[in-house]
Amino acid sequence: MCGIAGLIHKGKSSSVGSEMTAMLQALKHRGPDSTGYAVYGNPTKGDYIMRLKVAEAEDMEKGRGIHQVIADRITEVEAILKEHGAKVKSKDAPREYSLRYVISHDGDTGEMAEHIEETDGVEILSMGNGLELIKDLGDATVVSEAYGLNDFQGTHAIGHTRMATESDVDIKSAHPYWAFPYNDVSVVHNGQITNYWIMRREMERKGHRFMSNCDSELLAVYTAHNLANGVSLEDSLRQSIEEIDGVFTYLVATKDQLGMAKDTMAAKPLVLYESDDLIAMASEEVAIRAILPEEIDTYDPYDEEVRVWQA
């Protein structure tokens, strides 16, 4: 059992970091192992924001040598950025193993990202213009405080609380997922994909990279592949119901859209609230009530329902 949540403001920015924290904290009982955010801010033209990890949280308990290992990995990453002509405009390290770079780059960003991930122990969590993807162990309050998310202003966000059932309790297996070659895509998912390995091999044959064995990552790769090939988000969501087997409800965000899809059996819950300027959805209504305590009407999307909203 996991919890998913999403919200989008139409035509304005808001405190989506603190709003998503409140929603995910309300879903803590559905997944206490890790918490993840994909938040979309107000991008500066030409800038990329890269979030990456250079070690797992559990690695920090492996003795004093890990600190030098991390320092060496960071040095190698920055040498690769320089080699590809990227200019580092700012750098932060919310945690020793988790970094945020703002860079400018005019070359092949995908090739540069692949080169960075050739560094042992390094994984890019996201690289986009508006997207920032943050995930770590612990509940929403712990992660939000560590990464300063309560101050984040933006238009939309999705989030996830994870209960590890089929893979390890680590950052690599936490949601949301991001994928090449569509920079600003992120996905959170609740359910199980039964044709995961068939679909994964199909995506791998098309040249896509997977960083985990979590079936949810397939949805991010699948969506990124479709968007990069000119398929609209709504058509990709509808197509997924035909091509992906299993029970699932998932949310997808891009630089300016938020979408949802439920499979044919609709066994995984989602509650939705929609007004003229805000759409909020979550696995349980209690998460929506965390940001909208007043009297509101909500509804449960039907089986095979697909919706897409514009920021």
UniProtKB/TrEMBL annotation:
Keywords: Glutamine amidotransferase, Transferase. InterPro entries: GATase_2_dom, Ntn_hydrolases_N. PROSITE patterns: GATASE_TYPE_2. Pfam families: GATase_6. Coiled coil: none annotated. Residues 2-311 form the Glutamine amidotransferase type-2 domain. This is Glutamine amidotransferase.
